[in-house]
Every structure is written in C-alpha cells, then in structure tokens.
Design brief:
It contains 9 helices and 11 strands. The chain is of the alpha/beta class. It folds into 2 domains: 123 residues, Rossmann fold (3-Layer(aba) Sandwich), CATH 3.40.50; 112 residues, Arc Repressor Mutant, subunit A. Strands 2-1-3-4-5 form a 5-stranded parallel beta sheet, with helices on both faces. Helix 2 runs parallel beside helix 3, helix 6 packs across helix 7 and helix 6 packs across helix 8. The model has no long low-confidence stretch (mean pLDDT 86).
Length: 244
C-alpha cells in the first residue's frame, strides 16, 4: 500500500511513518503544502494522511484541489483536538475521516485500516447509480441530470448517492451525519440542513431545464418527512421527462 504523509513537523512525521511502515505501507513524506499538492495530483496513492496546518498551502485547499481534479484516494485529515470548525470544513472539502492532535498511534493505524476497508467496499459496490433522470458515476465522481452535468460539493455528492441507493428510505439527521460525514458527534443539525437545502436547490434548477416550471408547483425532489428526516421523492423522479 502506498501512503502519502503530509506533516510539516519533521520529528512528528518521522515518528508517524514508523507504524505504517511496520504494517507494510510504503510511506512517502511531504513537509510542504505546495509540494504535497503536486504529489497528490501526479501519483495514485492508496491513502493520504494530510495535516490541516501546513506552510505554503493549508490542507483544506490542497484537498479541494485534489477533489476538483478527481483525485479520489481516501484522505485522513489531521486537526488540532477540539477544533470542530476545521473538522467540518475538512470533511466538507472531501476528507474521509479526521484525527485530532495529539493522538495515539494505535488509533491512527486503526483509522487507516478502517478507511481502506471502506474503500474496498466502495470499489466492490456499483459504479453506476441511477434513478429516473439522475445518473451517478461513482468512480469518476460524475453526476448527470438528463445528461447534463451537475456540479456538487463532496458532501452533496455523498448525500445524493446515499439517497439514490435507497430511494424509499427515510434518513434521520443522525443517520445522515453518520453515513455522509462519518460521525454524529460533532455535525450540527444546521450543517445537515444547509447541505440538504443546497443539494435540493441544485436538483430543482436542473429539473427546471427539462420541465415547465408551472407544472412543478410546490413539489421537491428531496422530501422533508416531519419528525423523521429526509427521503428522495422517487415517484416524482420517475415522472420527469428529459425532453424539452
């Protein structure tokens, strides 16, 4: 397994690489944000450990660039313990998990193993998810609505993928926090509501390109089930025509 470790504290980086190397990883180390960004754009790593605070460029901006360029290797973001804002921003930028400093090296290794298991499960799952006019290419991170590309942020993509895979299920906010953000402990209701709202708006805009607005009424493609959570409006999706 090929691992990129991005950590500007050289002594810490030397300590961190020892554990993964003992477990069979080939570890490459970068101490600078700009160098790390280039490495991630040019190499197909199996997994990346990325510190938030870096000289040259912070971890969030690096990760955003990687995801824009379709670099989809799992990323474990390192943040200062208790820095909830950075955790949320990192996950929204496309991080798959986070670990607060200081940490136990045993936990670091456990999180790496969990991310790799999750990646194998994704690879074994369907690469194309479709319902009605919406089609997702999981490998390419591409979303099409009636063959028109829909630009989504990473968490919007994951949320839509989840809803499409389970079109009849209602997901509570706790379930969404766990399935989309990876934890229900630090994701506020407001973060979930905003993500659902922006995804709903983007779907509505795409729908309007293929449907007379007068026929839409108050219908929505993501339903709010009072007291329960959110659900894809599968019946409505199935009635949408991609002509016009």
């Amino acid at each position: 397994m090929w691992l990129l470790l991005v950590e500007d504290e050289k002594q810490l980086a030397n300590s961190m690489k020892q554990g993964p190397e003992e477990e069979g990883y080939s570890v490459e180390v970068s101490h600078d944000g700009e160098d790390a960004e280039v490495q991630g754009l040019t190499n197909d790593y199996d997994i990346v450990i990325l510190d938030w605070r870096l000289p040259g460029r912070d971890g969030r901006r690096i990760l955003e660039r990687w995801r824009r360029e379709n670099r989809m290797f799992p990323v474990l973001m390192l943040t200062v313990l208790g820095d909830t804002e950075h955790k949320i921003q990192g996950l929204d930028a496309g991080a798959d998990d986070y670990l607060g400093k200081p940490f136990a090296f045993e936990e670091l290794l456990a999180r790496l193993r969990a991310l790799l298991r999750r990646q194998k499960e994704v690879s074994a799952g369907p690469m194309i998810v479709q319902h009605g006019p919406i089609r997702i290419d999981v490998r390419k991170r591409l979303v099409l609505f009636c063959d028109d590309e829909l630009i989504l942020r990473p968490k919007e993509f994951t949320l839509l993928e989840l809803l499409l895979e389970h079109p009849s299920d209602v997901f509570s906010k706790t379930q969404l926090a766990e399935r989309v953000w990876g934890s229900a402990y630090y994701i506020s209701d407001n973060v979930i509501e905003v993500t659902v709202s922006t995804l709903r708006q983007k779907l509505t805009y795409a729908w309007r390109q293929h449907q007379e607005e007068d026929n839409q009424g108050n219908s929505t493609l993501i339903e709010t089930i009072r007291g329960a959570g959110y659900r894809l409006n599968a019946e409505l999706l199935n009635r949408i025509s991609c002509e016009g």
